[in-house]
Amino acid sequence: MLHAPSLGIGAGIAAAVIIGVFFVLNMPITDQGFKVNDIKEVQPEPQDATPQQVQMTVFSENGSPILGDVNAPITIVEFGDYQCFYCNKFFHETEDQINENYIKTGKAKLIFKDFTIIGADSIVSAHAAHCANEQGKFWEYHDTLYKNWNGENNGWASADNQFRFAKEVGLDENAFTECMSSEKYKPTIQASSNDAKTLGLTGTPAFFIIGPNNKIVKIPGAQPYDVFVNILDSNDLKK
Question: pTM of whole model > 0.70?
Answer without folding.
Answer: yes
